[in-house]
Hints:
Two copies of one chain form a homodimer.
Chain A (H helix, E strand, L loop, with lengths): L2 H5 L4 E4 L7 H12 L6 E4 L5 E2 L2 E4 L11 E4 L3 H13 L4 E4 L10 H17 L2 E3 L5 E4 L17 E8 L2 H9 L5 E6 L8 H10 L5 E6 L5 H14 L3 E5 L4 H11 L6 H11 L2 E3 L2 H13 L9 E5 L2 H13 L9 H10 L10 E2 L8 H12 L6 E5 L10 H14 L6 E4 L8 H9 L8 H16 L20 E3 L2 H10 L7 E4 L2 H11 L3 E6 L12 E5 L2 H18 L7 E6 L5 E10 L3 E8 L2 H4 L4 E5 L4 H10 L17 H17 L4 E11 L6 E3 L2 E6 L1
Parallel strand pairs in A: 1-2, 1-5, 2-4, 5-6, 6-7, 9-10, 9-11, 11-12, 12-13, 14-15, 14-16, 16-17
Antiparallel strand pairs in A: 3-4, 8-10, 18-28, 19-22, 20-21, 20-22, 23-24, 23-26, 24-25, 26-27, 26-28
Amino acid sequence: xxxxxxxxxxxxxxxxxxxxxxxxxxxxxxxxxxxxxxxxxxxxxxxxxxxxxxxxxxxxxxxxxxxxxxxxxxxxxxxxxxxxxxxxxxxxxxxxxxxxxxxxxxxxxxxxxxxxxxxxxxxxxxxxxxxxxxxxxxxxxxxxxxxxxxxxxxxxxxxxxxxxxxxxxxxxxxxxxxxxxxxxxxxxxxxxxxxxxxxxxxxxxxxxxxxxxxxxxxxxxxxxxxxxxxxxxxxxxxxxxxxxxxxxxxxxxxxxxxxxxxxxxxxxxxxxxxxxxxxxxxxxxxxxxxxxxxxxxxxxxxxxxxxxxxxxxxxxxxxxxxxxxxxxxxxxxxxxxxxxxxxxxxxxxxxxxxxxxxxxxxxxxxxxxxxxxxxxxxxxxxxxxxxxxxxxxxxxxxxxxxxxxxxxxxxxxxxxxxxxxxxxxxxxxxxxxxxxxxxxxxxxxxxxxxxxxxxxxxxxxxxxxxxxxxxxxxxxxxxxxxxxxxxxxxxxxxxxxxxxxxxxxxxxxxxxxxxxxxxxxxxxxxxxxxxxxxxxxxxxxxxxxxxxxxxxxxxxxxxxxxxxxxxxxxxxxxxxxxxxxxxxxxxxxxxxxxxxxxxxxxxxxxxxxxxxxxxxxxxxxxxxxxxxxxxxxxxxxxxxxxxxxxxxxxxxxxxxxxxxxxxxxxxxxxxxxxxxxxxxxxxxxxxxxxxxxxxxxx
Amino acid sequence: xxxxxxxxxxxxxxxxxxxxxxxxxxxxxxxxxxxxxxxxxxxxxxxxxxxxxxxxxxxxxxxxxxxxxxxxxxxxxxxxxxxxxxxxxxxxxxxxxxxxxxxxxxxxxxxxxxxxxxxxxxxxxxxxxxxxxxxxxxxxxxxxxxxxxxxxxxxxxxxxxxxxxxxxxxxxxxxxxxxxxxxxxxxxxxxxxxxxxxxxxxxxxxxxxxxxxxxxxxxxxxxxxxxxxxxxxxxxxxxxxxxxxxxxxxxxxxxxxxxxxxxxxxxxxxxxxxxxxxxxxxxxxxxxxxxxxxxxxxxxxxxxxxxxxxxxxxxxxxxxxxxxxxxxxxxxxxxxxxxxxxxxxxxxxxxxxxxxxxxxxxxxxxxxxxxxxxxxxxxxxxxxxxxxxxxxxxxxxxxxxxxxxxxxxxxxxxxxxxxxxxxxxxxxxxxxxxxxxxxxxxxxxxxxxxxxxxxxxxxxxxxxxxxxxxxxxxxxxxxxxxxxxxxxxxxxxxxxxxxxxxxxxxxxxxxxxxxxxxxxxxxxxxxxxxxxxxxxxxxxxxxxxxxxxxxxxxxxxxxxxxxxxxxxxxxxxxxxxxxxxxxxxxxxxxxxxxxxxxxxxxxxxxxxxxxxxxxxxxxxxxxxxxxxxxxxxxxxxxxxxxxxxxxxxxxxxxxxxxxxxxxxxxxxxxxxxxxxxxxxxxxxxxxxxxxxxxxxxx
Lengths: 698, 698
């Protein structure tokens, strides 16, 4: 199927064209309003001769030319026959608004969607929807979209794809957002969200890809697009549904999407530098910021310039809350600012300029230029609440001053940060937009959004394995836990540090093993049927002599046969006791869509009470392993905390890399790994797997 | 000084009346614009006969009547002579705009402010400022305010006090906020922030007190007002500067305020149920919500009603992030909703109603009524982005439906929650306001704000000691650490569980003490000069015989004389070794303004890595102690975590109450207490102070 036939058609037919409210009427209204040249658009309705004074055809076959794409505004039952008819006219694209398909959750709906999908495949028709609101292609002026919004020029460079038509409409209704494409994907089972994402990542007219996503259906395509965007540094901004259980449930009933594990999405987004936002306003404003600024900043640092002390304080505090860096100005900047500002102002970053400079464009430009030239600063934030109706003339002078500085060629971004929500004055919004200055929402959003900017420029795709171990098949449902020795042997095979161990089946084997291993020893029951060995008296530590080996051997067997008589016993596992190190937990969970996710955290309360863990998709390189560790609050426990030991971080990173490789290579058959604990020893002394369970698919 | 003479004057003179831009001109412009009856307002300017066509007097003495209050628009140097002159005319209130006082941070400025303060006291003049923007009294129509904003009716019930004039202006510029008073306090050294706060808490026309606060100067007055507001359930919403170091610095250079310890303010606000917000938008919108709703909800739970699936998902996820509770609907509600909604909708909370009901007021009212009647729900959130210019007619029907339900007398609050920032349609904002429905900012703010509402109604002043142990004097700067035994004896005196201990000065006393205490023993060096006893070999544990007592006695003395020969030794401290319990840290820090703050947390990494502590002002009752403990993430460690022990929470709470009483009684002389650790034993077995240092002021 060719997405271009859908999104960039030469000829279009609107089936069910009408003047009434509803899909047919509203689509026609939009087309009449926005499409400049209507000669390749055909309205079809057997009951009408004209629609909005344009000729209307009785049926597709009455149209004399081939039709690339049809917009079906009529009910569900008409859809399949129309597609078959259209196909005969050379149609290879279709938009279907009708609902009643898989989103209903019922069998009839699911079947209808399956049938539709099959038909499209057969006819080679790229279909948008069903249960969608259509799309707008602002680049080629194509407007098969069913929701009405206020008329304004929206052509720009944000490519929006949404599983909610209402969110498309909302972003169109924002004051200043400009788009290359707006795509309401609906259920997205024929042409999927992933297809559209890939299209926009590839599209040279799209500078920012903005997505409302309920779930992913084609992980491989999805990852591939994220990777391309990461390498090209094209920002992808995603509002992903499903942080909460109620949010996941809602996604399922809205477009029939399975939202997937939320933490997995966070991990995937981290790997590919995708910007995740939390609501519609943040999606809009983050996309808009990336859309408008002329160039990315070179440093993740900010200056904040304000006209009042109260607002300066809010910037200092809110910036701090969101982790925005305000470095001190250089000495040179401070000296210059002292000359420029009134005597009662004290130059700091954030800066209270006082209002006095804002009534003279030249003075304002001077101060702004001084700050823009400071080597510590990456981006300048101008704190100012631009209102709809201007009461205070300061903006006249400020805007002129900003323009002056921008036109001198200083390429650091300038961003305006208001303190109160409002529709912004149209004239000045437009003036500022034209010179690359976006206006953000009020401070709580604004600082969250500029932190996205800082994170985006700090992301380095060269530091990352841009590969994700996506399972090739995923049809194995049953799982089987390996016994401890099987688990450890498997890990050892993949280069992970596991102590020597023997399974013994009688006294003489036990004594033999003891001699090879040396004392002190650990002895444990070895059985895949017993997961909690201690609970059945199946673990004995600190065995120091032949005599103890023999007595323990029998003791364990008696305990187990008392507690768990039905368990199949493979023998007794004998290992040399390991010295205790710092306890680290490493887990792997094989996500049904995105494959093995590796989890790392310090043992005990760190993981259990504080959930202080890092999760990241396999495979993982050493730089990524380091980032995972540094993200832990408990990281400092490993690096000489309170005069304590420095632990062997190199070995720990190697271990993470190895387990991720193991998981990668076994992505189709692995279910879970739980290494708990891994002992991490002091610098230079390595790590060792103390206990491990591997669960494979069967 | 009588605040009413300042804020509710009968006669006013504007000194420096003018038509130019600036304090004089802008104040006159505001008065002409807003004050209905100008017969008691007198303009004074020696150079003018008329100002805006109103007669202007050469000087105050030319005015024939007494003047209650003067507004000084002229420069700093004129202020004191004017006050003296005005006093002769019976003046007891003044507004001073001029800056150049204590906010400069320099000696001249501070002196000028000291002098001004003294003069006002002498003349009995209640002075607002200096370095302020004046005030508006909307109730009595008094308008000595120097900033210009768009004309609209702003009379309402929010009392605003701000240390930033710009923040006053910002809140006036918001679309829909309505005030009883707006007060720009400026430096606030004559009439203080605390005076204004108390005035508004007492004022019956003020429903919500809204504050931008840089620092507190009169803690006693402040606390007293908070207490009154807590008991009357009048919401106080505070934007307090100084979350960050840079924010604290900015407050100091803005109005010369010392921002104080930020965590102390959090603790104080918690005790009195004060709502702390983080930026100007949140201050505005939180105040506005409390101002508009007709009645507080009875439950801290919410229903969310939306017109689209995407928006419903955002509500579910964002609500979850901010801890907003969306309980499930009752069976009855679900049955009714299923009848009312289209067949493809699935009734959940948050609810995707689909757009279909929003084009019929009756159907919309039915669904709303059904949800309002659900016993699980406290407040209903209507998700809808009202725009400035209405494109979609849904709001006509929704507003009518809402009105219908409200007028039936259902008293649960209804709040509108938009998804994008905008100036809201004036007509509908007003319609909704009149029936008690506020419109919040977009979702990130909105959910934070409705969580404030939930917290506010959950606060119970009856559960709290509404007392704070404010120091009566605070002139002792030097501190002196008590030795361990002195510290413990002091704590024992206040009923805290401390083991028996003896100081021994020779071998025979040591043997004697051993016999009285029993084995095993701990022996430690006792010296106020040695804080870290272990570091000098001054601590020995697990002493089990007379022989060991004697050898240890000498060993400790030798160690100490080697490591710390200059220390004054009081002897050797002997104690019975305590069994180990769960280690808890209890600290007290005596805040210079708000007195002793009690800190509780679990020992070790809990406090040190995760900063998992509760801080609360003394004195503390048992219910408050319980809240402190429950706030800890590590609380579960005390309550049978992973099948572990249940610790003696009753004894721990008693301990917190006792240490807070001790701190309260010693609030003028105590500097610090550090109990580390307190051993907490299993249920019924109490707690015991294992180590303690008390530092007193000297």
